[in-house]
Amino acid sequence: MCKFIFIGTISKLQEIPFHKDKPDFHVKALPDEFQAVSDKFKHPNIYYVGTSEGCGCDFYILQSLTEEEKKRINDSISRKLKLRTAKYIRRILGQQEKQRVNQIKTTQENEKHLKQTYQLIEVIENEVRKNGTVELYCCWAEEYEFTPNNHQVIHINKTKLKEGFEIQEREFITFKK
């Protein structure tokens, strides 16, 4: 099941279409299929926002490992490798190479999702600076009419959204200056 993210704004936003052949961050005026969320918003302009995956699941910012954590992990791997036979080491290195390739792919995906999360944050911050507030609602697919479980207010002047950003399902957030 996927998360769906909706934002409500005072002024109209420029829409960014979703392209199946080159998927990326997109903003679309509230489609008819999502009208059930409109009663949650006070602002007149409501938009569906999504990532290259077509939904809102990948809007987040992960904290990376510290240098100390990386060193500890590498040291642990080195100690274990020294204890193994050459055959075993060759097998481990092959697995590590596969893991490294997978990590590169994962890193590229994370960078893409991070870029798209930054785009959402920029939309929110720009609109808050311009009009003082933005509303955001997150829900699971097909749960558009459900009441939010959590309401919170986030002041963008006091919170660094680009250092940690995750939206929980059935959460309604009001962003203010």
Give the helix tally: 2
Name the overall outline. Answer: globular
Q: Spatial order of the strands in the main sheet?
A: 2-3-1-4-6-5
The helix content, as a percent range, equals 25-40%
Distance between the termini: 33 Å
The chain-level structural class is alpha+beta
Overall pLDDT level: 82
Instruction: Summarize the helix and strand pattern as letters.
Output: EEEHHEEE
Beta-strand share of residues: 15-25%
Report the oligomer.
Answer: single chain
**What is the alpha-carbon Rg in Å?**
21 Å
Q: What's the story with the biggest beta sheet?
A: 6 strands, mixed
Number of strands: 6
Q: How many domain regions?
A: 2
- List low-confidence stretches: none
Looking at this protein, list some descriptive labels.
globular; 177 residues; 2 domains; single chain; alpha+beta; six-stranded mixed beta sheet
Descriptive overview:
- This protein is α+β, with helices and mostly antiparallel strands.
- It has 2 helices and 6 strands.
- It folds into 2 domains: 3-62 and 113-176, no CATH class; 67-105.
- The model has no long low-confidence stretch (mean pLDDT 82).
Fold topology:
Elements lengths: L2 E7 L16 E4 L15 E6 L16 H16 L3 H46 L1 E8 L9 E6 L15 E6 L1
Parallel strand pairs: 5-6
Antiparallel strand pairs: 1-3, 1-4, 2-3, 4-6
What's the short story on this structure?
The protein has 177 residues and is an alpha+beta fold.
